[in-house]
Amino acid sequence: IEWMKNQMIIGDDPKFRQINNQGICSLEIRKPGNFDGGVYTCRARNEHGEALVTCKLEVKRK
């Protein structure tokens, strides 16, 4: 599993927590702020192929 923000690999960035619970993957943003908005992608690869899911996150001030 590989997580990306705006097509850049997140890797072991301490800002993010990557969770895999029984095959369900999620990404947690620690202390989200204005600069955390963007396009997030989760990519899974194995010998059978590749799957991608992407979402756009907008951060708005109150």
Protein model, in words:
One of its GO terms (cellular component) is myosin filament. It comes from Cirrhinus mrigala (Mrigala). InterPro entries: Ig-like_dom (IPR007110), Ig-like_dom_sf (IPR036179), Ig-like_fold (IPR013783), Ig_I-set (IPR013098). Residues 1-54 form the Ig-like domain. It holds the Pfam family I-set. The protein is 0% helix and 58% strand. The model has no long low-confidence stretch (mean pLDDT 95). It starts with a strand and ends in a 5-residue tail after the last strand. It is mainly β. The protein is globular, with a radius of gyration of 12 Å. It has one domain (2-57): Immunoglobulin-like (Sandwich), CATH 2.60.40.10. The chain is built from no helices and 6 strands. The strands form 2 sheets. A 4-stranded antiparallel beta sheet has the order 2-1-5-6, with no helix packed on it. Strands 3-4 form a two-stranded antiparallel ribbon.
CATH topology, by name, is Immunoglobulin-like
* Radius of gyration, CA atoms, in whole angstroms: 12 Å
Main sheet: strand order: 2-1-5-6
**Could you state the order of secondary-structure elements as H and E?**
EEEEEE
In short:
This protein is mainly beta.
